[in-house]
Amino acid sequence: MAYQEGAASAGARALLIEPDVAERWEMPDGTTYVFHLRHGVKWQNKPPVNGRELVAEDVPFTFHRFLAEQANPLRYMLESVDRVGGLGGKPRYRVVLQNAAWTV
C-alpha cells in the first residue's frame, strides 16, 4: 500500500466503505472512531521516513498537515475532529478520532 492512502475508501459497489490502511474500525460510542491500522504498511523509501512502518504516532502529524493545506478540497471532512491520537493496548496500531459534536 502507498503511504498516501486513507484509512478507508469507497468501494466499487455503491455506498460501501472498505478498509484501506486501517484494517478495521469501530465506534465505541457516538463521538469516537477507533481505527486499527494494518501492520506492515510502509512509507515510501525517502527521507525522513526511509521506508519505515506506518504507526499511530504518524497519524496526528499527517492529519494536521492535511488540515493546514487551505486548498485541499477534502479538508472539510476532518475539520470537525477535536482529538486525534493513540489509544491504549497496542497504541502503535490504534488511532482514535473524536468529536463531542458527533452523534449517532
Classify the beta-strand content into a percent band: 25-35%
Point out poorly predicted stretches.
Answer: none
State the strand order across the main sheet: 3-4-6-5
Any idea what the radius of gyration is? 14 Å
Shape: globular
Distance between the termini: 31 Å
- Named CATH topology: Dipeptide-binding Protein, domain 1
> Structural class, please?
mainly beta
Q: Please give the CATH class.
A: Alpha Beta
Describe the structure.
- This protein is mainly beta and 104 residues long.
- It has one helix and six strands; from the N terminus they run ββββαββ.
- The strands form two sheets. It has a four-stranded antiparallel beta sheet with strand order 3-4-6-5, covered by helices on one side. It has a two-stranded antiparallel ribbon with strand order 1-2.
- The longest helix has 11 residues.
- The radius of gyration is 14 Å and the shape is globular.
Describe what is shown at a glance:
This protein has a single domain (8-98), classed as Dipeptide-binding Protein, Domain 1 (Dipeptide-binding Protein, domain 1). The chain is built from one helix and six strands, in the order E-E-E-E-H-E-E. The protein has one helix at residues 58-68, and strands at residues 8-10, 17-19, 22-29, 32-37, 83-86, 94-98.
Protein traits:
single chain, 104 residues, mainly beta, Dipeptide-binding Protein, domain 1, 4-stranded antiparallel sheet, two-stranded antiparallel sheet, 6 strands, 11% helix, 28% strand
